[in-house]
Design goal:
Shape: globular
Strand order of the largest sheet: 1-2
Number of strands: 2
Helix content: 55-70%
Number of domains: 1
Distance between the termini: 31 Å
Strand content: under 5%
Oligomer: single chain
Length: about 230
Amino acid sequence: MNVFGVTVASFLLSRCKWEELIKSNPVETPTILCYAPVQLTPTSTPLADTMPALERLRLSWLSFSEVARNAVVDSNQGSDSTNSFRQELADKHRAALDELVAAGSLSKAVADLVQEAYDAAVYHVWRSSVPITCYIAMGPYYAPESAEMLIKQAETLNQIASQGSLDQETLAKARAALEHDLAFYSLSEADLQVLYKHLSENGQSYPPFKEVELALPPEAQVAAEFIIELLTQK
C-alpha cells in the first residue's frame, strides 16, 4: 500500500502509512519497481450477510482471484468498478471483524491489524492485475513483497485445509511468514521511519523483506494465529 503511478506523489490508497514517510525521509536514489501478475487459484466465493462472521471472513480471504478477475475485465472495458468491489470486500471484512470484537472474541487491536493486512493483500492483487505495472519509489519498498507473501501464505493455508490434514512443517513456515508480515503491518509511522532510515544509512544493499529483522509484538502473534485458524478450518 503505497506510491503507485509515475511519481512518488501518486497515491491510490488513502490509508497508506508510507505517504508521510517518503515525503519526510526520501532516499537519494529512486528505484523503478514493477508488479508481476499474482498467480492465484481460481475461486468462487459468494458472501452472504447471513453467514456467521468467521465464515464471511474466511471467504473474504478466498476472494483474491475475483479481485484480479474484476481488475482485468474493468481494464479491458475502461471501467473502474473494481475499486467498488474492493471496497465492498473490505467493508464486509471489517463488519465481520467488528462482530467478533463486539462479542469479545477478538481485541480491537488484533482486529485492526488483521484488517490492515487484508486491505494490503486485496490492494496488491488489484494493483498487480491492472495494465500499469511500474512505479517509482524511493529507497526500500517492502509493501509489495509483504503483501505478496501474505497472499501466498493464505493460499498455502487454504490448501492445507483442503487436504484434510495439517502438515506441521508447512504450517510452521506459514506461521513464521505471517508473523513477520503482521509485525511489519503493526509498525507505526515513526517505527517505519526509523527502519527505513537505518536501512538507508548502513551502506549496504537493502535486504529482501523476509530478511529484515522485526520485533514480534503480541497482537501480531495473535493476529497470525487467528488467520491460521481461520484459513485452516474445514
